Amino acid sequence: MAVHKVGAYKQVVLSGCSAGGMACFLHCDYVSAWFARVNSSIDVRCICDAGAFIDVPTITGAGDVMKTRFYDLADRMQTRASLSPACVQAEPDWRECMFSETTLK
Fold first, then answer.
1. Buried b vs exposed e over 57-86: b needs ≥16 C-beta within 10 Å?
2. Potential cystine with 70: which of 32, 42, 87, 98 (Cβ 3.0-4.6 Å)?
3. What is the pLDDT of residues 86-102, one digit of tens each?
4. pLDDT tens for residues 6-35?
């Protein structure tokens, strides 16, 4: 069996779907920074499928259901440290960074 050294990698892909997509989204920057410390030329890409939801009111008039759910998730899972530091610093409420349209500005 061949033994591979992490520093010799050229590319790394982190991916996930459904709940794994959310984990991919939340940890992409951390994983990329970790590999950059090992070897700054490693290209890290994240493919987060179905882990990002837009912040819009429901068509039924029930209000901002997604915002309520994501704020609850952010609080319960203590996700602040996993979110984009630039987004957290720029937003009045750091939990807004759970939404892709806010983080990807």
1. eeeeeeeeebbeebeeebeeeebeebbbee
2. 98
3. 999 999 999 998 887 78
4. 888 999 999 998 878 878 888 888 999 999
Buried-exposed string 5-19: b where 16+ CB fall within 10 A, e elsewhere: eeeeeeebebebeee
- The candidate with the shortest Cα–Cα distance to 49, out of 104, 103, 105, 100, is 100
Q: Is 41 helix (H, G, I), strand (E, B) or coil?
A: coil
Residue with tokens 């892909």: 13
Question: First and final CA of the chain: distance in angstroms?
Answer: 45
The pLDDT of residue 39 is above 70: yes
Sequence-separated (6 or more) residues with CB below 8 Å from residue 11: 42, 43, 44, 45
DSSP code at position 50: S
Task: Check: CB of residue 28 under 8 Å from CB of residue 48.
Answer: yes
Distance CA 19, CA 76 (A): 15
